[in-house]
Design a protein that fits this description.
Layout (H helix, E strand, L loop, with lengths): L1 H21 L3 E2 H12 L3 H13 L3 E3 L4 E4 L6 H6 L1 H7 L2 H17 L5 E4 L3 H10 L7 E5 L2 H7 L5 E5 L3 E3 L4 E3 L1 H10 L2 H5 L9 E9 L2 E2 L4 E4 L5 H10 E7 L15 E5 L8 E7 L4 H14 L5 E6 L2 E6 L16
Parallel strand pairs: 4-5, 4-9, 5-6, 9-12, 12-14
Antiparallel strand pairs: 1-3, 2-3, 7-8, 10-11, 11-13, 14-16, 15-16
Length: 332
């Protein structure tokens, strides 16, 4: 492990040195050529190194995947000490691979109109990759201040930040106000009902949900109690649902009592598609469990698996799922 960390430190120092030498913004494909030539690592690994440098305020990412070195700044310590910055670097290579797979899924959905993008570090990386995509025409609603900031100003993407109490440690808004804001998207009738009541789903709406743990029985968990309800409501509204979790969050023993249940896989039987996206580090047993779990949650559904660029995508099309009409005259 120490050797691997030393190798990464060498790569990051070389990237920073190269960026300082150029005195210009450098496109990611040029940095990828450098990474292959000097270290023999993939673009996924390169993006992980660059993200760590960005979190440390040593490098800044510009539009369309170009990077530049930053002079030392006095505010770097605050970023390094934030919980969001720390989590951003944890399993970053896995999260970046998952994010790439999520954006490929979204780019293939011809009828995509609205993206409900959950808060979390994996979904932040998805926003980062989404910002580099051309030809999109989509409205993004999110409780993630970090993701909204990254997507702001991107051509073809209209960004809407949900309301709620701001937590600077995680760069997110959450709580009852956020749940009410999500309910308001479905129209005045939904807004007037009980805060926790189920919402209808709409066509052309895709939700990407960031999870902290998926249990062997199909229950889905978050570590943040303030975010439990808003995650469930976002999933309610979507016709297509993508769940993201790196392999360390799949099916193992859960230590501690801080997990809060969001929903169960079986509750999503009316969706057009349900996907579980993890990284290729998932073991053979985890892969078997994922297929089996989706098969149990959606009896008779065809379960497909696709592996590419360090990510693993499981897809289920539940039987009986029907095309939902898009919402007219509401937030969606």
């Amino acid at each position: 492990m120490s050797m691997r960390m030393d190798e990464r430190a060498v790569r990051m120092m070389r990237l920073l040195e190269y960026l300082n030498e150029q005195e210009r913004t450098v496109p990611v494909n040029e940095l990828a050529e450098l990474a292959v030539r000097e270290f023999g690592v993939s673009e996924v690994t390169l993006r992980s190194d660059l993200s760590a440098l960005c979190a440390l305020r040593a490098v800044r990412k510009q539009a369309r995947g170009a990077y530049e070195a930053l002079p030392p700044a006095g505010d770097g310590a605050a970023v390094r000490g934030s919980r969001f910055g720390t989590r951003l670097q944890h399993h970053s290579e896995s999260k970046i691979a998952i994010a790439g797979a999520v954006v490929r899924v979204l780019s293939r959905q011809a009828d995509l109109q609205v993206l409900l993008l959950d808060a979390g570090t994996t979904t932040y990386y998805a926003a980062d990759r989404l910002a580099e995509r051309n030809g999109l025409d989509v409205t993004v609603w999110t409780p993630s201040v970090a993701a909204a900031s990254r997507l702001a100003g991107c051509h073809g993407i209209s960004v809407r930040l949900l309301g709620g109490e701001f937590d600077p440690d995680y760069a997110v808004v959450s709580g009852d106000e956020t749940a009410r804001a999500i309910r308001a998207l479905a129209g005045p009738d939904a807004e007037a009902t009980d805060l926790g009541a189920a919402l209808p789903q709409f066509g052309g709406v895709h939700c990407v949900l960031d999870l902290n743990y998926i249990a062997p029985d199909g229950r889905l968990f978050t570590d943040e109690s303030q975010e439990r309800l808003q995650k469930r409501l976002m999933a309610d509204l979507a016709e297509d649902l993508t769940l993201v979790a790196d392999h360390s969050k799949l099916f193992g023993r859960r230590l501690g009592l801080q997990a809060h249940e969001v929903n169960t896989l079986a509750a999503f039987g009316s969706k057009r598609t349900v996907r579980l996206v993890t990284d290729a580090g998932a073991s053979g047993e985890q892969r078997r469990q994922a297929r089996e779990l989706l098969g149990q949650a959606f009896p008779g559904a065809e379960i497909q698996a696709e592996e590419a660029e360090g990510a693993l995508v499981f897809r289920a099309a539940p039987l009986g799922a029907s095309r939902k009409a898009p919402c007219q005259g509401c937030g969606l």
